[in-house]
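Supplementary notes for students who missed Thursday's class. We covered one full example, reproduced here. Read the sequence, then the structure, then the short commentary at the end.
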Amino acid sequence: MTNLTQSAVTGGAGWLMASIVLLTGSCSSHSSRVANLKVCIVCQFDVSASAAAKTTKDHYLRDFGKIASSLGASDLLIADTITENPSATMTFPIRVPLPVYDAWQTSPLLHRQDLQTMRQSLIDQTTMLVRNTPPTQKTAILDAIYVTRKAFENDDCKRAGQRVLVVFSDMEEDSERANFLREDLSPQRIEMLLQKEQKDAHLPDLHGVETWVAGATQDRSLGASKIREIEKFWSAYFARAGAHLTSDRYGPALLNFALPHAPTPMSLGEATEYERHTSAARTSDRDLQAQPRD
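Structure (token representation):
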């Protein structure tokens, strides 16, 4: 191999390696932004008789649409229904990860289209789940939240930058553990119920979980004092479990819902830089192949 040829090969290879390093660094930086902002959301839908009305389900699904539209690249959404026996029925049939942006496999435009397709698929699947699950006579919300810990213990959720729980329910517990409509939920009774949950090892670890309640006490026949009692119980319950539920996130509808800004695909500038370097790498590769061999 002549000195001139060797120099051309060395120079071309150096430019190729530099391009690869630059591209790898750029993509790695973008990927780490995605990983750091990933959100794991678990949604629970009350399908008891008290929530069986079409208008109630319509409200749930309308609010769920807000969640679906908030999802971004690499977010994960898991959903199931609250029945009379969640330990037996909760299998989390909806588990949809949104696609991660990969500059080597797709374009920003196609990725945005893929995200929108997945969001609509989520809405369709959830609509079928909520509308087609037979209503139950009782509502074991405490059991459902306890079972939900398994979803948050999944490796994907553990690695998520943020974990979110959204409960679509009137929050009127009616099970073997308690019956809120028949009980006097005084501060003393609330504390007794919470201590029983702890004693029975039935209080899940929800530390760091951002929580919303949508649909709480929609029954207009309940008195204002009973509505406040039920809210006080759940506020104390989630606080004891380590979750973050504020009063502005608890109500008859999904209030003040927000996720960290989902990372967008490459900006126009990033995409232009990506194309410039990949084009340079392809040109360098062709030059290498065209060099005469000794």
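Commentary. Residues 39-251 form a domain with the Rossmann fold fold (CATH 3.40.50). Residues 4-37, 262-271 have pLDDT under 50 and may be disordered. If anything here is unclear, bring it to office hours.
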